[in-house]
Amino acid sequence: MSWLLLAASATALTAPRRTAVAPRAAVALQGRSDAQLKRGIAEFYDESSGIWEDVWGEHMHHGWYEPGEKAGTMERDVAAQSTMIDKALELCGAADVAARCEAAGRPMRILDVGCGIGGSSRHMARRFAGAQATCVGLTLSPEQARRGNELSREAGLDVTLEARDATNTTFADGSFDLVWSMESGEHMPDKAKFVAELGRLCAPGGRVSVVTWCHRDLQRGRKLNAQRGVTARGVRDWTANIAPFWPAVARSSLKWSSLKKLRKTGLKTIRGAVAILFMILGYKLGTVKFVAVAAAKDEAPGDAKWAWSGPVF
User: Fold this and answer.
1) DSSP string, 16-38
2) Local confidence band at 25 (pLDDT 50, 70, 90 cut-offs)
3) Could you tell me the pLDDT band of residue 7, with boundaries at 50, 70 and 90?
C-alpha cells in the first residue's frame, strides 16, 4: 500500500550517506554500516510487499498528476502510477532507444534498479514489445524477486528479477540500453557509487533515468559528477505532480483491512509507518523534493560527465 512506499522513503532519508547531506542528520546517524542498512531494507520489503500488492497492485511508487488535478478513485490513482512510468520514459527518450534497437534487429536491454515486484519492468517490456525488450530487475528483497518472477511468468514476459545489490553488480560495461531507477536512489547509502554504476552499465547511445526523493539543494551550484560519457538531458521537479497521491495514501492506510494487515507485519513495517510523519514534515517544509533526472550515454568515449546541479539525493 502507498503508505509503505512513503515509510520506506522516510526511513531512507534518515540513512547514512557518504555524499553531502544535512550535517545534523549525518552526525546523528553515524555508525550504521552499509550491510546493516541494506539488510534492513530487504527485511522491510520482505515483510511489507505483500500488503502493498493487496491494496495497490504491482506498482510500488507514486502516481503522477497534471497540475491542479486531485486524487480521485482508486482506479484513477493506480492509473497515475502507470503515468509516472510513461512520463519518466518520455523525459529520458527511451522510445528513441527502442527504435534504434528495433532498426538494428536486436532486443532492447533494460535494467530496472530497485524493481520492487517488477511492475515497471513489465510495463516497459509491454510498451517496447516491438523492440523485443528484455528486462532484468534488481532488488535487495528475495521475497520481491520471488513474487515478481511469478507475475512475469504468468504474463509471459521476458522479465527476470534478481535479489542482488545494485551498487555492486557483475554485469559487463554497457550491458543495457536503458538503465532505470524508480524511487530507489534514496535507499542507496553511497550515492556516488550508485550513480557511477548506472553510468557504467549504460551502453553507448543509451539512456539513464533516475526518479527519486531528494534533499533540497543545500549548496547552490553543487554538482554530482560521475561516470564519464554520461550527460544530463533534463532535470524535473515533480514534487507538486505527486502531491495528489498523498490523500490516497491516507485513505488506504486508514482502511480497516489495511490496519488488520499492518498488525500482522513485523516491527520494521510498523516503525516505517510512523516515520511517514517525518516525510510529510519534510515535504511541507520543502526540505525534500521529488525529482526526475534523465541522462544519455555518449556514442563514443569523451569528456562529458553526468553533471547535476539539482537537489542532492
Assistant:
1) --SS---HHHHHHTTT--HHHHH
2) very low
3) very low
